[in-house]
Design goal:
The chain has one domain: 3-Layer(aba) Sandwich (Rossmann fold), CATH 3.40.50. Helices cover about 30% and strands about 35% of the residues. The chain has 6 helices and 11 strands. Strand 2 and strand 3 form a beta hairpin. The chain starts with a strand and ends with a strand.
Length: about 200
């Protein structure tokens, strides 16, 4: 559940999106993100779905690696970094990418996030891959995103409405050994989640 007001946007049970960084309280983590050229200020349902998936499904130990493809404001990368991830944040738009870099510095996690303009700039495999972007882009880069998954990884795709779900599910499922995703909904928007992926394209 998410609510907004003078205290920012609260995405229960883990996140509070604020304009100015303050101290975390209890199990709640604050993310300071201001509106700018990069998508993702915490108010959109797809951002909220992705943040909830990161909080619920991210590895609990270790440093772990996450790929954020279409990182925009960097809000997902920042949240993951605060949970212990080392993140490759890929954003093709230069202005949006610069916005994400500023937000990483404001949140004091810029040492845990590597920014790139293309997927070629992100190397290796990842325990968590998230992409909150247009259906057409998810389909175009499906092979590359699946190839970046480490064994046992989690894949989260959003930016989708209900009518996008069948095509994206089938397309990725064919690359993932016909595994079917879990589908999460918030308003008109959907997120697809594949957990503990073992098949690698």
């Amino acid at each position: 559940m998410a609510r907004s007001g003078g205290v920012g946007v609260v995405i229960a049970p883990r996140w509070r999106i604020v304009r100015t960084l303050g101290a975390d309280e209890g199990n709640e983590i604050r993310l300071a993100v201001n509106p700018g050229p990069g998508f993702g200020d915490g108010t959109h349902e797809t951002t909220q779905l992705c943040l909830q998936a990161i909080a619920a499904l991210a590895p609990r130990s270790g440093p772990w690696r996450m790929l954020d493809f279409g990182s925009g404001s960097g809000i997902l990368a920042i949240g993951a970094a605060k949970l212990g991830a080392v993140v490759d944040a890929v954003e093709i738009d230069a202005l949006a990418g610069a916005h994400g870099e500023r937000n990483a510095r404001v949140n004091c996690v810029d040492d845990r996030i590597r920014h790139a303009r293309t997927l070629d700039g992100a190397g290796g495999s990842f325990e968590f891959v998230v992409s909150n972007i247009l259906r057409s882009v998810l389909l175009e880069f499906a092979g590359t995103l699946v190839a970046s998954l480490a064994p046992g990884a989690t894949l989260v795709l959003s930016g989708l409405v209900s009518t996008d779900v069948p095509q994206v599910s089938v397309h990725y499922g064919a690359l993932l050994g016909d595994e079917r995703p879990e589908v999460y909904a918030r308003g008109d928007w959907r997120a697809l989640v594949w957990r503990r992926v073992l098949f690698k394209s």
